[in-house]
Write a structure and sequence with these properties.
The protein is mainly alpha-helical and 148 residues long. It is built from five helices and three strands, in the order ααβααββα. The longest helix has 35 residues.
Length: 148
Amino acid sequence: MTPSAPSAPSPARSPARGDLFSPDCPTRRLLDRIGTKWTSMAVKVLAEAAPEEIRFAELRRRMPGVSQKMLSATLRSMARDGLVARRVETTVPPRVHYRLTPLGLSLDEPLALVRAWAEEHMAEIDRANARYETETGDGAGAGGAEAG
């Protein structure tokens, strides 16, 4: 059997994949947005409710520690990226509802794996941080900057 020539990409396919190692690749900005703790928590809460909607106040209640401003910014970013759909009831005050889109729902499983890994290894990471600080005298912890 002879190898066939590669076929041209179908017009319906999305553009080529990004290259995370290219400094100007938009994948980096996307990972910055979807990699936050608040996005991960919002995806988890909304995925548990899917396909139902959750009101803003209920979402905030289920995400301890998130401020109204941070949750608003997170949801706005997720809506811009097509991960959540937003519905506003024209009441006084307005009631705002959110649900994951199919694209947002597809993010639940990968983020669940990252959350599970973090929860499983947190004690080990804490010990490594303490060891590092003891060995180097650097109390900056995870927030310290690396010289490039």
